[in-house]
Amino acid sequence: MTRSDTAFTPSAVQLDRVAWRRRQTIRSILVAALSTAVLGALLVFAVTGAPGWDRVRQSFLDPSIAADALPDVLRGLWLNIRLLVFCALGSLGLGLVIALLRTLRGPVFFPVRALAVSYTYTFRGLPLIIVIYVLTLGVPGLRLQGMPSVLVLGGAALVLTYSGYLAEVFRAGIESVHPSQVAAARSLGLTYRQAMRHVVLPQAVRRVAPPLLNDTVALQKDVGLVSLAGPIDAVRAAQISTAEHFNYTPYIVAGVLFVLLAIPLIAVTDWVTLRAARRQAGR
Amino acid sequence: MTAVLACQGVRKVFGSSVVLDGLDLEVAEHEVVALIGASGSGKSTLLRCVNLLEELDDGTIHLDGSHITDPRVNPDLVRRKIGIVFQSYNLFPHLSVLDNITLAPVRVHKRSVSSARAQALELLTRIGLADKASAYPDRLSGGQQQRVAIVRALVNAPRLLLLDEVTSALDPELVGEVLDLISDLKRDGMTMVLATHEMNFARQVADRVCFLDGGRIVEQGPPSQVLDAPVEPRTQQFLRRLAPA
Ligand SMILES: Nc1ncnc2c1ncn2[C@@H]1O[C@H](COP(=O)(O)OP(=O)(O)OP(=O)(O)O)[C@@H](O)[C@H]1O
Ligand SMILES: [Mg+2]
């Protein structure tokens, strides 16, 4: 067993090593701070010194117009957030189901497999805008009873398209799990479904978590496309406000809000990626 | 008394190569049989066929007198009665040692989590790995992983345990601890078929040694006879090549 460390005193060599590493760390931080400051100063100088800077500042960075546009853009952003949550969950679920259908073996499931394959081909190939138009403009034309709102139809279009991508990500994960894992599970008496559920999927999902999250970040920007069919999202709200003021500042407001919204998601993605890389290196 | 395992005329073909060519093998209760033979002679293939991981091209396999290679038999039910341990451990990397061991008892045999855990801990204590119960497989040494894999196969209380070169991926110092565990199992009366390249291992634990060549068992008998005084020329040749000159 490993001995406990209580009675350990580091040697002079080790103390020297630790001290040297600490000095190196402090030096690196100072160098980084200095080079950042220099680069920042240069950038500010270059931009504000440009001949057209005053005009650009007036038409893109007007504080009073920003304050005026903010409430509308925020209201639009709330729609983006609700759509994002609904569509992310929907396409993750549907994508997983389609990936699983594609892995089914046996002649009975041939039509199911074929359907799943053509699904991923179709919706990865079809431009999202066309799917949105077809669902939000075409489907209501059927005048069926109990037709959902345009917003729901637009969300469904996003789910259809994104689940096509996510299904392929899930499938890559499932196929990356070595067949010996399935053999080991089956040899313990687990059925195919149990092996999938308890052995293959947990490993697969862990492996593809970074690309899945990455697609969610992309989805965050694409949900705004439902505004093509009428609902007002943040970008559309900014567009309206821009037209009212003859000034582009509302776009900058919307842009900043989008970045702020993306930061937590991107940070989580980076963290998960890093953790996955560490786990790989750990073996 | 019927044999625990009975293979009759087992044939297995991969493409154009005939790996098993009408092989016969019977294993009695509490018997330990070692399969030896050159690399590629079909030892692993035979074990995989018994565990229904491969489909036969001819012949039959019976377990406790019931025909398991009948296509109408549910392979999941058969596999629950047979434990198999592979050369490359194949522990589940996303599960702790304890969860690796209790997965089948809980999911397949519908045992309660607490009783499965208690039994798993008891087995881990027996092999001296109780303090690793919550560790993940990648934190264990090769010998420790292989012992966990054996314990994982044992919690199902199998009628038959198949071991495929369980020591060949291990450093020499680690081989001993795995061999000790297998000797313990033999003492407890476990029926085992093991493929091995280590003649000393076969000599220590096996009641009977079978030499595979050309898809059949060419020679079999107690270790002292097959390993020390083989009569078949092919067995003699195989052993001569192994022995340090
Ligand atoms: N899935 C497969 N597809 C094609 N050929 C295979 C397959 N599995 C095994 N073989 C072939 O069958 C033969 C027997 O392989 P097997 O693994 O049973 O040998 P072995 O006796 O276990 O050898 P070793 O001692 O090296 O483990 C080999 O020639 C191998 O290439
Ligand atoms: Mg082998």
Automatic annotation (TrEMBL), chain A:
<comment type="similarity">
    <text>Belongs to the binding-protein-dependent transport system permease family.</text>
</comment>
<keyword id="KW-1003">Cell membrane</keyword>
<feature type="transmembrane region" description="Helical">
    <location>
        <begin position="29"/>
        <end position="50"/>
    </location>
</feature>
<dbReference type="InterPro" id="IPR035906">
    <property type="entry name" value="MetI-like_sf"/>
</dbReference>
<dbReference type="InterPro" id="IPR000515">
    <property type="entry name" value="MetI-like"/>
</dbReference>
<protein>
    <submittedName>
        <fullName>ABC transporter permease</fullName>
    </submittedName>
</protein>
<feature type="transmembrane region" description="Helical">
    <location>
        <begin position="149"/>
        <end position="167"/>
    </location>
</feature>
<dbReference type="Pfam" id="PF00528">
    <property type="entry name" value="BPD_transp_1"/>
</dbReference>
<feature type="transmembrane region" description="Helical">
    <location>
        <begin position="251"/>
        <end position="274"/>
    </location>
</feature>
<feature type="transmembrane region" description="Helical">
    <location>
        <begin position="83"/>
        <end position="101"/>
    </location>
</feature>
<feature type="domain" description="ABC transmembrane type-1">
    <location>
        <begin position="77"/>
        <end position="269"/>
    </location>
</feature>
<keyword id="KW-1133">Transmembrane helix</keyword>
<keyword id="KW-0812">Transmembrane</keyword>
<keyword id="KW-0029">Amino-acid transport</keyword>
<dbReference type="InterPro" id="IPR043429">
    <property type="entry name" value="ArtM/GltK/GlnP/TcyL/YhdX-like"/>
</dbReference>
<feature type="transmembrane region" description="Helical">
    <location>
        <begin position="121"/>
        <end position="142"/>
    </location>
</feature>
<keyword id="KW-0472">Membrane</keyword>
<keyword id="KW-0813">Transport</keyword>
<dbReference type="InterPro" id="IPR010065">
    <property type="entry name" value="AA_ABC_transptr_permease_3TM"/>
</dbReference>
TrEMBL record, chain B:
<dbReference type="InterPro" id="IPR050086">
    <property type="entry name" value="MetN_ABC_transporter-like"/>
</dbReference>
<keyword id="KW-0472">Membrane</keyword>
<feature type="domain" description="ABC transporter">
    <location>
        <begin position="5"/>
        <end position="239"/>
    </location>
</feature>
<dbReference type="InterPro" id="IPR027417">
    <property type="entry name" value="P-loop_NTPase"/>
</dbReference>
<keyword id="KW-0029">Amino-acid transport</keyword>
<keyword id="KW-0067">ATP-binding</keyword>
<keyword id="KW-1003">Cell membrane</keyword>
<dbReference type="InterPro" id="IPR003593">
    <property type="entry name" value="AAA+_ATPase"/>
</dbReference>
<dbReference type="InterPro" id="IPR003439">
    <property type="entry name" value="ABC_transporter-like_ATP-bd"/>
</dbReference>
<comment type="similarity">
    <text>Belongs to the ABC transporter superfamily.</text>
</comment>
<protein>
    <submittedName>
        <fullName>ABC transporter ATP-binding protein</fullName>
    </submittedName>
</protein>
<dbReference type="GO" id="GO:0005524">
    <property type="term" value="F:ATP binding"/>
</dbReference>
<keyword id="KW-0547">Nucleotide-binding</keyword>
<dbReference type="InterPro" id="IPR030679">
    <property type="entry name" value="ABC_ATPase_HisP-typ"/>
</dbReference>
<dbReference type="Pfam" id="PF00005">
    <property type="entry name" value="ABC_tran"/>
</dbReference>
<dbReference type="InterPro" id="IPR017871">
    <property type="entry name" value="ABC_transporter-like_CS"/>
</dbReference>
<keyword id="KW-0813">Transport</keyword>
